[in-house]
Input
Amino acid sequence: MDLSTLISRKWFCVVDLDVCAAIHAEVLASLRPCAEEVLRLKVVSSKIIAAVEEHGVPAMLVGSVARGTWISGDRDLDIFMLFPPDLTREELEVQGMSLARLVAARFSAKGVEKYAEHPYLHMIYPDGEISLHIDLVPCYAVESASCILSAVDRTPFHTRYMQERIGPYTDDVLLFKQFTKSAGVYGSDLMTEGFSGYLCEVLILAYQGFFNLLQSIVTWKPGFVLDIESHQAEEFGAPLVVIDPVDPRRNVSASVSLSKLFACIEYAAGYLKDPSPLFFSLHSVPLLSRDEVVMQCSKRGTALWCMVFSTPPGPADTIVPQLRKSSESLVQLFVRHDFRPVRWDVWMGEERCMLLFEFMEGVIPSYRRHIGPPISAWEHAERFLKMYQEPFSCLSGPYIQDGRYVVELVRRYCSVSDLILSQEVFSVALGKQVRVSLREGFSLVSPGEAYAPDCAAFLSAYLQYSSPLIRLHRERGV
Output
């Protein structure tokens, strides 16, 4: 059975369930946290919560650890400090961060202030030979998720909702999380544009198991809507719509891009057709050396250019959308000047960012054809003639071709690099902070010249780009 037939069927079972069960048992043995690991995280989280509550502020453990759906080896704890909703946002931030710093100092933990919708403290907690990463997050203790005052206020409701329901499906959640990690679609951050841990749990709960979920995934089409509480209160135009069980006005899957949705569909279809433990392994793209990057670029025969500039201040959730917006605006500029972008991508590092563009050709002829109105629309045609009737206003024309006036004009930019280095770059809709960084200066270089350890994985992934299933098949030698 080929992939298209597999995807077109609504419900099917083309594999031996005993084979899948054996694979799942093998995989789960490495995914389930051991008793010692569970106890360690329970003890540490209890200590942190007690330290917070000593100051009269309720606290709770949230996220996958609180729900028992974390994969062995994950050492991230999320502890929310619940403040009265009558505090102003400024008071919440000041009191929340002050308390978080006191707690970190109590345990001699290194704390770093980070930002989402408002500040929170990320601390590294020493626990014997390992370190735990703990986020202390201030939020409002609201009555329901429909009364939230900040985005993080929903999280305690997510935790309570799942704690009451997800227990029988814990193993299924672990399988699906690892499956999406293997497919490269796990993570709701704006660089990944994939499935959050909570979304994985909602989907498993909705379909009551991993295998049932995969059978459904292969039937999904863009715009698919899932509402397990039947309480949707808003319409969404996203590729995948999963209504939050605790908030009828929120799409849990808003982060999932169309490409990542189809990557997940493809991966699910591939597994159902030919199951293997490799569908739960991580498949990293081979890291290319600088010389290999140069060689790969040469083989492509295209024009590859990197705009490299200092990373603007701010969290990734703010900067990455600006990078994407800027790249899309620049692509429109290139097209208007008759250059042909093949593919493009963005990358954000700690110290520098990159906009990568690939063109079918970097240099185009020095003249362009400009087609005017039809002769039959004489009023418009006459204005066109007046515009180009002066000598040397065009290389050739105006002349008539297929009933329209045509002129041949000298291009302003024959080289895409000249266009990128011109002030026209700043005439398009760039992200606000990205514009500031570009104004401060950027370098236009080839991928080989841009190559450095910090962006090696990004360049390697771009030059060896393939779908997750194809990458797995190549690894298997299929």
